[in-house]
Amino acid sequence: MNYTLTKLPSGLRILSAPIAGAKTATILVAVATGSKHETPQSSGIAHFLEHMFFKGTKKRPNAQIISGELDRLGGQYNAFTSKEITGYWVKSAAVHLPLALDIVSDMLLGSQFASEEIEREKGVIIEEFNMYLDNPRAYIGELFEACLYGDTPAGRDTIGTKKNIKNFTRADFINYKKNHYTAANTFVIVAGKIPADFKKMVSQNFKNYPQTAAKDKLKTKDSQSAAKIKLHYKKTDQAHLALGVRTSAYGATDQPTLKVLTTILGGSMSSRLFTQLRERNGLCYYVRASTEAYTDSGYLVTNAGVQVNNIEKALKLIMVEYKKLIDEPVSKAELEKVKQLIFGHTVMGLEGTDETAEWFAGQAVILQEQKESLTKIKTPEKLLAEIKAVTAEQIQTLAKKIFVEHNLNLAIIGPYEDEKKFVALLKF
C-alpha cells in the first residue's frame, strides 16, 4: 500500500493513502493531544473539548445543523480521544469528500463553545462517565492503566473526574485548544478514492489553522520494583480481571515479536489462553491478550471475565501460560499458524478506508510526539515482513525479559477488598 506525505507551509501535514477500486473515502483529522497532556486540574478536558467541536460554529450554529449535514452525506462519522491522540473522522461516498472536509475543518476552526452548550454537555459526559463505571468489561482497561502508571497523566481516566467535568469553563476550552490544536501537531489523513486536487482542498479549508507551537505532553514513568494490584470493589456475579506486564514503547525493535507472542497467548479462539480458560476449564466467556504501545511506554495485558469464586483459578492458569512461554520454545507449526492469522487479520482489517486512515494516523501522531522522522511510518507490507521474520528463539527471549514478578500488574473489578489474597498468585 502506497502513501504520500505532504507538509504545507503552515506545518500541517497531509497523508494520502489511495486504495484502488474504492468507492468511499475517509478523512481523519488527527491531533497529537490527549489525556497525557493534562494536569490533575485539567484532567478530562481533551475529551470534553472533542464533544464541544460538534456543538456549533459561526457557519453552522448548532449541533443539529452539523449532524444533519453529516447525515446527509449518507456515511459514518465520529470522534475519539485517547491518551495521546484525538481524532475527527468522516467516511462517505468519495463524491462527498469535499463537503466532509468543509464540515470537519469548520468544526475545528469555527466552533463557538457557547457557555449554554458547555453546561448542557456536562450532563452528557457525566452520564458517559457513569456508563463506563457500570460496564466493567470496558472500565477494566482504565483501571489497569491506573494500576500501571498511578496518579500520573498516563494513569488517569481519559474522561477525567466528575469534579473537573462540572467545573470546566469556556475559557478552559479556548485555552486548551490554543495550546494543543496547532498545525505542527495535526495531520489530515485521507484514504480511499482521493480526488486529484485534495491537497489544494485541504490547504484552502485549513488556511487559518493556528501555527503556534504545541505544548508537549508529560513524560511517563515506565518502571516498577514490585508487582502491583489495584482493586475496584463492585458487587457483581462476574469478576473482570486484567493481568499484564510492562513492555516497550512504539517503534522498539521487539514490537513485531511482541505482536506474535501476544497473538499466541490470546489472539484467537485457538489461542493458548482461550483454550485453557474457556475450552478446557469453562471459566469464562471472553478472554483475550492485547498490547498497547505509547510514545514512551507499553504493555501486554490479558483480560477475562470469570465467576467471582473462580478468579484465583483463572489467574493461576494465566500465570502458567506466561511461564510456558519462558520455559518452552513455540513450535514451528504454532508459529506459522499465528503468523498466518496476523497476515489475514491485517489484510481484512485494511479493506475499509476508515481502518486504513486509522492505521496511518496512529503512526504519524506517535512519531510526531516522539520527535522521530515520519519516514518511519510503516506500510502494512513492511509490518508483515517483520512479522514473517520473527523466530521462536526471539519469542522465548522476549518472554524471559517481560514475564518477571516485579513487572506484573493486576487490576480487578469485583466484590473484593483484600489485596493480600492475590499477592501470592503473582509468582512464577
Largest sheet: 6 strands, mixed
The tally of beta strands, per DSSP, is 11
**Number of H- or I-type helical stretches:** 16
What is the mean pLDDT? 96
Overall CATH class of the largest domain: Alpha Beta
CATH architecture of the largest domain: 2-Layer Sandwich
Unreliable parts: none
Give keywords.
16 helices, 11 strands, alpha+beta, Cytochrome Bc1 Complex, Chain A, domain 1, 428 residues, 5-stranded mixed β-sheet
Description:
The chain is an alpha+beta fold. The protein has two domains: 4-205, 2-Layer Sandwich (Cytochrome Bc1 Complex, Chain A, domain 1), CATH 3.30.830; 228-423, Cytochrome Bc1 Complex, Chain A, domain 1 (2-Layer Sandwich), CATH 3.30.830. Helix content is 43%, strand content 19%. The chain is built from 16 helices and eleven strands. Strands 1-2-6-3-5-4 form a six-stranded mixed beta sheet, sandwiched between helices. A five-stranded mixed beta sheet has the order 7-11-8-10-9, with helices on both faces. A hairpin with a 4-residue loop joins strand 4 and strand 5 (86-93). Helix 3 packs parallel to helix 8. It is globular. The two termini are 43 Å apart. The model has no long low-confidence stretch (mean pLDDT 96).
Short description:
It is built from 16 helices and eleven strands.
